[in-house]
């Protein structure tokens, strides 16, 4: 479990084939400062397990399913990634509850600069659009953000907007995002549970009406 508050920007230093997935090594001095074998670290929003580590790096396996649904597909040495260690029970929950389970990929449609902030408009896959609400929480590349605008329900290609303050621009990789970039999206866990419950409620009502 994570909060979406990024602790450091790491760098992928090695990528090796591993079955149908890959094994990546990330330079991450802060993330490994108290990490142990089997611990979880979110890499740009993807929860990965530490399988090896050194003084300033860790290695993790990325399976095929994760590559298929996240921006880690095609990952190469040199890529900057957002890093967060798993939430400790005694710390403040500064962002929102983040699982590190990517729901899908969005793409940056537009970057609008302001005097002290920057607005990103990001495409949203059709199946995720109902889970995104204005002023709700969204995780973009592992960063906990508040949705500042959403497309109308009848729009064919859904989108959301997030407004990034200077701290977010400086402390995460979102400051480098440009139009066309792919980003990992994780919707709010509460919205996903409600959607699932409603699906069963609808099915039950249909069955009872026969």
From TrEMBL:
It comes from the Bacteria. Pfam families: Lum_binding. Its EC number is 2.5.1.9. Pathway: Cofactor biosynthesis; riboflavin biosynthesis; riboflavin from 2-hydroxy-3-oxobutyl phosphate and 5-amino-6-(D-ribitylamino)uracil: step 2/2. Lumazine-binding repeats lie at residues 1-96, 97-198. It catalyses: 2 6,7-dimethyl-8-(1-D-ribityl)lumazine + H(+) = 5-amino-6-(D-ribitylamino)uracil + riboflavin. Residues 1-96, 97-198 form the Lumazine-binding domain. GO terms for molecular function: riboflavin synthase activity. PROSITE patterns: LUMAZINE_BIND. Catalyzes the dismutation of two molecules of 6,7-dimethyl-8-ribityllumazine, resulting in the formation of riboflavin and 5-amino-6-(D-ribitylamino)uracil. NCBIfam families: PRK09289.1, ribE. This is Riboflavin synthase. It comes from Microbacterium plantarum. The lineage of its organism: Bacteria, Bacillati, Actinomycetota, Actinomycetes, Micrococcales.
